[in-house]
Amino acid sequence: MKDNYLTLKDKKGNKKEYRILLNIECDNDINFVIYTDDKKTKDGDITAYASSYVISEKGNMTKLKEVKNKDEIDFIKKILESLETK
User: Fold this and answer.
1) Which of 31, 33, 57, 62 stands the most exposed, by the fewest C-beta atoms within 10 Å?
2) What pLDDT does residue 56 have?
3) Which residues contact 31 (CB under 8 A, 6 or more apart)?
4) What average pLDDT score do residues 69-80 get?
5) Which is higher by pLDDT, 16 or 85?
6) Residue 18 in contact with residue 8, Cβ under 8 Å?
7) Residue 46 confidence (pLDDT)
8) pLDDT by residue (tens digit) across 21-50?
């Protein structure tokens, strides 16, 4: 991660850079990062992705995993909805 960007590899090993929108550090050792490649949907909304992660001893994000747990998804949705401007 550098300057609010995150570089991830796809299944083919290609690197892709994402802009970090929000980093959520929780007390229960499950942390979340919400990020985007700035692509937009047909409605003009920015596509965002969320992953859980572990903080390494050096303070880096490691072991990013797709968020699949319903409670975690609901938690992230509530945070995004609270930030949404209308």
Assistant:
1) 57
2) 82
3) 23, 24, 25, 52, 53, 54, 55, 61
4) 90
5) 16
6) yes
7) 87
8) 998 887 767 899 999 999 999 999 889 899
Beta strand spans in 1-86 (E): 5-9, 15-24, 31-40, 46-55, 61-66
Domain ranges in the chain are 5-83
Helices (H), 2-52: none
Rounded to whole angstroms, the Cα distance separating 82 from 78 reads 6
CB atoms within 10 A of CB 45: 10
**Tokens 């979340």 sit on residue:** 32
Tokens of 72: 């975690």
- CA-based end-to-end distance of the chain: 31
Between CA 46 and CA 72 the distance in angstroms is: 21
> Phi-psi bin for 29: left (phi > 0), alpha (psi -120 to 50), beta?
left
Strands 61-66, 31-40: pairing is unpaired
pLDDT on residue 59: 78
